[in-house]
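INTERNAL AUDIT FORM
Audit reference: QA-55
Scope: verify that the stored structure record matches its stored sequence.
Auditor: D.O.
Record contents follow.
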Amino acid sequence: MKHGTLLAAIDLGSNSFRLEIGRYDHGQIQRVAYLKETVRQGNGLDEDRNLTEDAMQRGWDCLARFAERLAGFKKSQVRAVATQTLREAKNREEFLKRGCEILGFPIEVIAGTEEARLIYQGVAHMLPSNQDQRLVIDIGGRSTELVLGHGLEATETASFRVGSVAWSMKYFPTGEFTEQAFYKAEIAAQAVLEEALSTYPRHLWNKAYGASGTVGAVAEILALSGFPEGEITIDGLDWLVKCLVRAGNANKVLLEGLKEDRRAVIGGGVSVLRALMTLLQVQTLHVAQGALRHGVLFDMVEREDHDTDMRDLSIQRLAIKFAVDAAQGQRVGRVAVHMLQRIYNKASSEEAAVLDRLSRKLSWASQLHEVGVAISHSDYHKHGAYILDNADLLGFGMPELHRLGLLVLGQRGKLKKLEIELEDNEFAKMLMALRISLILCHARKDPNYQDLRLTCDHHKQRVCLQASDDWLQEFPQSAHLLKQESISWAKTPWSFEFVTKP
C-alpha cells in the first residue's frame, strides 16, 4: 500500500456508530479523524427481531453525516462493518440497501468470530510487540467477543449474545438499580458465557485486555474515583455496583466520568463485565487502545498483500476440512481466471483493479466448488452453497460469503435460480467464466484452452468462444458441453455462443 494513503473504517455497533479515518505510514496508521454517534440500534429490535422505523432512521441519519465526511474517498479506501444487531435483524436488508445508498459505500455484516478477530487485530497492533499469551474481551451492545492470541495472531475467537444494551433492556428496563437486579443479571450472563471456561481457562493466558465502549467507560469512572488508571479490578467493580445501587436509578447516578450516552446502558455493561471477570478469574483487566475499527483499518492494509490476506488461508482451511480435491480446484481456478481476463480484454486501469478483485473471488469459488461433495455427490452445488452461507470464515463478511455461495450454486444446472443475480454484470461474467472452466476441466486434467479464442461485446452482453475444427475433433465431449452451455444462457441478460472456425 502506498504511504500516505487515507483509509476509513466504519463500525456499525449496537450502541454506537463510529468512523475512524487514518493515514497509512510505513506499517502504522496515524489517526486523522474520529467520529462517534450514539445510535443505540440495539434497543430498536422489536419482539419479532425487526428494526423499528425509528431505529433505522437514526442509523440512516448518522450514515448521512459520515458520508459527508467521506466525500472524495474511493471504494478501496473505505470499509464499513456491521455487528450483532444487524446480524439479528430480520429486516436488515431493508436497512442495508438504503444505508449503502446514503453512505455511498458497501456495508458488510460480519460474523461474530470475524468481529472477534478484527478486534484482536486492532488491540494487538497497538500493544508492544511480544509473544505474551493474551486474552482480549470486548463487551458490545448485544454481543461479547473473546479472543486468545499472541503477537498479531488470534488463535481462538468466539462471540456470545450478551451485551450492555441487551442486558440493560432485560434486567434494568426502567433504569432501577437494586442488588437483586445486578445478581440476576450477572447470573444470567454467566449462564451464557459459561462455555467459554473450556476455551479460555486462566492458565492459557498471561494478561487480559478489554477493548471498546463498556470497558473504556468503566475504566474512566474508576480512574476519576481514585482507582489505578487504565485498569479494572473486581474490587473496583464491586465499588461501582455499590454506587449504582445507592443511587437507585440510572438518572440519579452522579459519578464523574459517566457520560450521558452511557448512562442508560451502564447497568447492563457492568453486570456483564463483572460476570465475565469473575467467571474467567480475571483479577486485573487492562484497557486496550485498539478496537474493532482499528482492526478493520489494519485488515484493509493486509488485504492489499495477497501473502497476508487472511481470506486465502481461510479458503485453504475449509478446503482441507471438507477434503476437497485441491488439484482440481486449482486447475478450475486457473482456467476460470484466464477466461475472465479474456472477457475483460484490454481493460482500463480502473477496470484492471476490478478484474483483480473479481479474479480473487473467482479463484476462491473455484477452490471450493466441490466443497459440498463431502455431504453428498447429488446436488453438491446446493450443499456447497449452504456450507458457504453458514460458515464462519475469518476475513470474510457474510455478504461476501453469500456471494461465493451463489457462484458455487450456479456452477451447474439451470440459471433461472440466479435470475436476479445475473442482472449484475460482474457476477454474470464470473459465473460464465466458472462454468466454461468446469466444462473444459471435466476430465480432471489440464485442458487445452490456449487454442480457444474468447471475445466479449460488453454493450450487447455477449460472449463468444471460438474453436478450430482440429480442437473439436480432439475434444468432442467438451465441444458438446459448450454447445449445451450456450442454450443455458439463452434466457438470461447475457448470451454465450460457441462457434467453430476452420
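Auditor finding: record pair retrieved intact. The two ends are 48 Å apart (CA to CA).
Action required: none
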